[in-house]
Amino acid sequence: MEEKKQQRESISSSLDNKVLQNYLKVSKNREGIAVARFSDGICQGCFLSLPPQLASEIRKNEVLIKCPHCQRVLYWTG
Length: 78
Known about the structure:
The protein is an alpha+beta fold.
């Protein structure tokens, strides 16, 4: 547990402050889960469909994309 805490602190210190604050806010509002997988056109955090253009942007993996419904940061595993 302590190792995970240290790992989290290390990652947190390397993030842009705005990104970190957004992560903490969403995490607080979404039962501790600020990141969700994107699969088959659906945010796996809130289980709502996303527009095709947004899905395309998520797959590019060039910038952080948030779900427009639940505000979680989305990732795609391919």
